[in-house]
C-alpha cells in the first residue's frame, strides 16, 4: 500500500521571475546555469495574466527548448525547473513545473527538496477524494492548496498548505496573478532572491543570477513565503523559523563554485576546506596534489596552498559526459567513471600523488581513480577527502542512499582505505568543515544540516518516510 503512495525523487534546481517581458528567456538562461543540478528533464511555465503556458520535456535544457518554442512562452512572469530523477522517477508526467487547471484559477508548482510526510498527506488527501496524476511530492502541495477552505484568501490557503509539510522544500509557485516563493522552516535547500531591472527573480543558486545580469538581494528565509504581484514584493511567514539547517553537501559538492549560499561563496568555502584538511593532516610527504574534476578542484587548490605541495593537473575530465551519479545503476556508474576521467601520465608517473576529492559516497570513484593513477605510474596515492565520512541517508532530496550503499557506514577509515587501495586516506573533521565553511564550529545550532555525516536529522523523520531515491510509481 505504502509503495503505491510513493513519490519520486525531487533533487533539482528551480528558477522564477516576475515583472519582465522576457520572463521565459530569462528563465531559460537561469535553468542553463542550474543545469548541473539535474539533467533529466526541464520545464518552463509562463503567464501573461491570462492562463498559464507550459513547455517541458525530458533531457537537457538545450534539448527541451528552442528559440521557436520560447516564443510560445510569452508573458511577464515564469517559473522553471531542471530535475534529477532516479530511473523510477522518469517520465514526462513527472517533469516540473506541474500545472493544475481549475475553474477557480490555474496553478503551476516546482520544487527542490523532499517532503518527509508526503506519504501520510497523500493518504489523507486520497481519503478526501483527491486523485493524483504524478508520484511527485509537488502535487501534494497543489492538492492541499486547492482543498483548503474556500473562505480563505489564496495567500492564506497557500500558507496553511505549506505549514502542513515537513522536510526540505524550496517552492516556486506561479498563478495568473502572482509568483509565490517558499522555503521550509529549516531552510535546508538553498534559495536566493534577486533583481534584474524592475523584475524580481528567485533561484536555487546565485549563478543563475549572474548569467542574466541580476543582482542577489538576499537568501529566502526559513519559513518565509514571498509573494510577488502587481503591488510588488510582499514577505510573510507561514511557519516560525526552526533551527536553520542549510545542506552541507551544497557546499561540499552540489552547488557551482561561482554561487554564493547564504552569502558564502562556494569556491572559497571549498578552498578553505582543502586548507583545513592540510592543517589537520600535518606533515605529508608527496610530490603533487591533484583534484578530481570539477567539484574537487577548489579544495585541491586550498590543500596545495596550505601544504606547499604543488598543484598539478593530474586528472582530466571529458567535457561531454554528465556527472557519474546521473547514471543510476552501479555498473553504468562504474563505466561512467572510466569514460569521464583520464590521468595525465607525465604528471603522475613516478610521483607520490595526493588525490583530493570532495566526498566519498559508495567509494566507486576513489577506488577507480587510485587504480588509474597507479596504472599511470604513481608510486603512492594519498586520498584526502574534503568532507567527513558519509554514514547516513539523506531524506531531504539528495541522492545519498541507504546505509548499506555508503562505503563508510559501519567501517573504520582504515577499512575504507583498504577497500579503495589507497596508501593513506584522510577525511576532514566535521568541526573542521563547519569552521572552513564559515559556521561556528559547535555542532549544535551551527546553521548547517549535517545529518548524512552524523545521523542527526534536523526535522522529524516519519516511520514511513521514503528515501527520495526509493520513491517509485506504482511499485
Ligand atoms: P562514489 O563514487 O559513490 O564514492 O561517489 C563519490 C563522487 O560522487 C565524488 O567524487 C563526488 O564528487 C560525487 N558526489 C558526492 N555526493 C554526490 C551526490 N549526492 N550526487 C551525485 N554525486 C555526488
Ligand atoms: Fe544535505 Fe546531507 Fe542534510 Fe541531505 S542529510 S540535506 S545531503 S547535509
TrEMBL record:
Binds 1 Mg(2+) ion per subunit. In the C-terminal section; belongs to the purine/pyrimidine phosphoribosyltransferase family. Pathway: Purine metabolism; IMP biosynthesis via de novo pathway; N(1)-(5-phospho-D-ribosyl)glycinamide from 5-phospho-alpha-D-ribose 1-diphosphate: step 1/2. Keywords: 4Fe-4S, Glutamine amidotransferase, Glycosyltransferase, Iron, Iron-sulfur, Magnesium, Metal-binding, Purine biosynthesis, Transferase. Its cofactor is Mg(2+); [4Fe-4S] cluster. It comes from the Bacteria. Its EC number is 2.4.2.14. One of its GO terms (biological process) is purine nucleobase biosynthetic process. Pfam families: GATase_7 (PF13537), Pribosyltran (PF00156). It comes from Sporosarcina pasteurii. This is Amidophosphoribosyltransferase. [4Fe-4S] cluster binds at residues 247, 394, 449, 452. Residues 12-231 form the Glutamine amidotransferase type-2 domain. GO terms for molecular function: 4 iron, 4 sulfur cluster binding; amidophosphoribosyltransferase activity; magnesium ion binding. Residues 349-392 form the Rhodanese domain. InterPro entries: GATase_2_dom, Ntn_hydrolases_N, PRTase-like, PRTase_dom, PurF, PurF_N, Rhodanese-like_dom. It catalyses: 5-phospho-beta-D-ribosylamine + L-glutamate + diphosphate = 5-phospho-alpha-D-ribose 1-diphosphate + L-glutamine + H2O.
Amino acid at each position: 500500500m505504502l509503495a503505491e503512495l510513493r513519490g519520486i525523487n525531487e533533487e533539482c534546481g528551480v528558477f522564477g521571475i516576475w515583472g519582465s517581458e522576457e520572463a521565459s528567456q530569462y528563465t531559460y538562461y537561469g535553468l542553463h546555469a542550474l543545469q548541473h543540478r539535474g539533467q533529466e528533464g526541464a520545464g518552463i511555465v509562463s503567464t501573461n495574466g491570462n492562463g498559464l503556458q507550459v513547455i517541458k520535456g525530458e533531457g537537457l535544457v538545450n534539448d527541451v527548448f528552442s528559440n521557436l518554442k520560447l516564443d510560445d512562452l510569452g508573458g511577464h512572469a515564469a517559473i522553471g525547473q531542471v530535475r534529477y530523477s532516479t530511473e523510477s522517477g522518469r517520465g514526462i508526467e513527472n517533469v516540473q513545473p506541474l500545472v493544475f487547471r481549475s475553474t477557480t484559477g490555474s496553478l503551476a508548482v516546482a520544487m527542490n527538496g523532499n517532503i518527509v510526510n508526503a506519504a501520510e498527506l497523500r493518504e489523507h488527501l486520497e481519503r478526501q477524494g483527491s486523485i493524483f496524476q504524478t508520484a511527485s511530492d509537488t502535487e501534494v502541495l497543489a492538492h492541499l492548496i486547492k482543498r483548503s477552505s474556500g473562505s480563505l484568501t489564496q495567500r492564506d490557503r497557500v500558507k496553511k498548505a505549506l505549514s502542513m509539510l515537513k522536510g526540505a522544500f524550496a517552492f516556486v509557485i506561479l498563478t495568473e496573478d502572482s509568483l509565490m516563493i517558499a522555503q521550509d522552516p529549516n531552510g535546508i535547500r538553498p534559495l536566493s532572491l534577486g533583481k534584474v531591472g524592475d523584475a524580481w527573480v528567485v533561484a536555487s543558486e546565485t549563478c543563475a543570477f549572474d548569467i542574466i545580469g541580476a543582482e542577489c538581494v538576499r537568501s529566502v528565509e526559513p519559513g518565509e513565503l514571498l509573494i510577488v504581484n502587481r503591488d510588488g514584493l510582499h514577505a510573510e511567514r507561514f511557519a516560525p523559523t526552526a533551527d536553520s539547517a542549510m545542506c552541507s553537501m551544497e557546499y561540499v559538492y552540489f552547488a557551482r563554485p561561482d554561487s554564493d549560499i547564504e552569502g558564502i561563496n562556494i569556491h572559497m568555502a571549498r578552498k578553505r576546506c582543502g586548507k583545513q584538511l592540510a592543517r589537520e593532516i600535518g606533515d605529508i610527504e608527496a610530490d603533487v596534489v591533484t583534484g578530481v574534476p570539477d567539484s574537487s578542484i577548489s579544495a585541491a587548490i586550498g590543500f596545495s596552498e596550505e601544504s606547499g605541495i604543488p598543484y598539478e593537473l593530474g586528472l582530466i575530465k571529458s567535457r561531454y559526459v554528465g556527472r557519474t551519479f546521473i547514471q543510476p545503476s552501479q555498473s553504468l556508474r562504474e563505466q561512467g567513471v572510466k569514460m569521464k576521467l583520464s590521468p595525465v601520465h607525465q604528471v603522475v608517473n613516478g610521483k607520490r600523488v595526493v588525490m583530493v576529492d570532495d566526498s566519498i559516497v559508495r567509494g566507486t570513484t576513489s577506488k577507480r581513480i587510485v587504480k588509474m593513477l597507479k596504472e599511470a605510474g604513481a608510486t603512492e596515492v594519498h586520498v584526502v577527502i574534503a568532507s567527513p565520512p558519509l554514514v547516513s541517508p539523506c531524506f531531504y532530496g539528495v541522492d545519498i542512499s541507504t546505509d548499506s550503499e555508503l562505503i563508510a557506514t559501519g567501517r573504520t577509515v582504515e577499512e575504507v582505505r583498504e577497500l579503495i587501495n589507497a596508501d593513506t586516506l584522510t577525511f576532514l573533521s566535521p568541526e573542521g568543515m563547519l569552521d572552513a565553511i564559515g559556521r561556528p564550529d559547535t555542532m549544535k545550532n551551527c546553521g548547517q544540516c549535517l545529518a548524512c555525516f552524523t545521523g542527526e536529522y534536523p526535522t522529524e523523520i516519519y516511520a514511513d518516510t521514503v528515501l527520495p531515491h526509493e520513491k517509485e510509481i506504482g511499485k
